Known about the structure:
Elements: H1 34-51, H2 62-75, H3 80-92, H4 98-111, H5 117-126, H6 130-143, H7 148-159, H8 166-176, H9 186-190, E1 200-206, E2 213-218, E3 235-237, E4 257-265, E5 277-281, H10 288-291, H11 304-308, H12 323-329, E6 337-338, E7 362-363, E8 366-368, E9 374-377, H13 378-388, E10 393-402, H14 414-422
Helix pairs in contact: 1-2, 2-4, 4-6, 5-6, 6-7
Amino acid sequence: MKYLFLLIAQLFFSISLFAQQPLSDSVYSKVTTKQAKEARYKYLVDTTIKQYLQDSLNEDNEGEWNDALWAMELTQYKDDFTRQKLEVAWDKAAKMSDYFQKNLLETTYSLYKKEFKLQAMQLMRQTKSVSIFIRCAEYIMRADSTNGKAIVSSMINQKFPKDTSVGIQLLKGRIAIKKPQPLPPLKDIFSENFLQGQTVIYSLQRNNRDYAGLVIIRKPDGSFLKDSSGNYFHTSQLARAITNYPFYITNGNTPQGILRFSGFDVSRLLYIGPTQNLQLQMPFEDSPDVFFNDSTYADTAWSTALYASLLPSTWKNYAGIYETFYAGEMARTAVIMHGTTIDPELYKAQTYYPQTPSLGCLCSYEEWNDSGYRVRSNQQQIVNALNSIGSSDGYVVVIDINDKKKNVDIDEVKPLLDELSDQ
């Protein structure tokens, strides 16, 4: 599944900033009704998973098996039957297409932390594809925290000794990491001197994306947006992909770093829904003149030095802030900020519940009643906030602030925001 977005029209209504009243008169989605959710789940399990997987896997029905793998991933569905069918798929994986292998690896990574390590090692030895190799490698390193990195490093030297591709270099970098870098001062990247005169939306996350992050907004004048009660605007947001893949793999977690914000859109995609989304672009997805909103960069090529020119001096050597740059260089696209019509009950056993994961976007919580009407929307709060200051473009900065095992809370950054507002 790919996030492709079509321009439709701006929503015709306006809701007052941060309004918490029910929105049931405003936005409706037929896929969020109780009946539709029940019917959709039944179809995904009974037909897409159980029926499609009954047939023996071959080149002719690979498409149906791909659909089944996606349905398992989306619903986080697994039982003895699907486990057996995954084993069948892995037995035949080397003879199937690269596309099938990617889907198989993605679903396996999402559902099973280490049970298919030996199969992933076998495919890693056999494949000639760098993208397949990387996905196998990430599975093995997670499955075997003791020896995984050494196994993958040895295999890189055997199979790709002279490969200089971005993916292999990033994989080598991940193998070389001994301990996380300390986070540079947030004060410097919150400063009015960073992306001066621009609207900046900060999505503050945990290293472990199983926990929800927090959105705050810096206005073009350098001050942080407050509501009518004088409190800093904030709302929760999930930056976790259903795959939980690392940032540089398509459909992986939202990369840290800077993204360009270039207006609003409304998606026709089933699981995003009708709430306005924010259109975002990473480096390489847009040319430098568009990303910088500066025509003097029209003939400039992307480079780490060019990207670093946006950063405060204290952040220039911090690897995490470059993730959007490298994800873009890896051809990741369509990472946006959107709402959700996915049934949260699919994930009620997960730490991030009632948030719903995406395929790598910044996904904001939304609640829909059994009749299909929107009751609450963190995404609409963000849209309303931007409309209140007349901002339809700027930047989004995603930062993993620490590894605390809880959702990010405004109290963690409020003292710093207060300090900046007093200057």
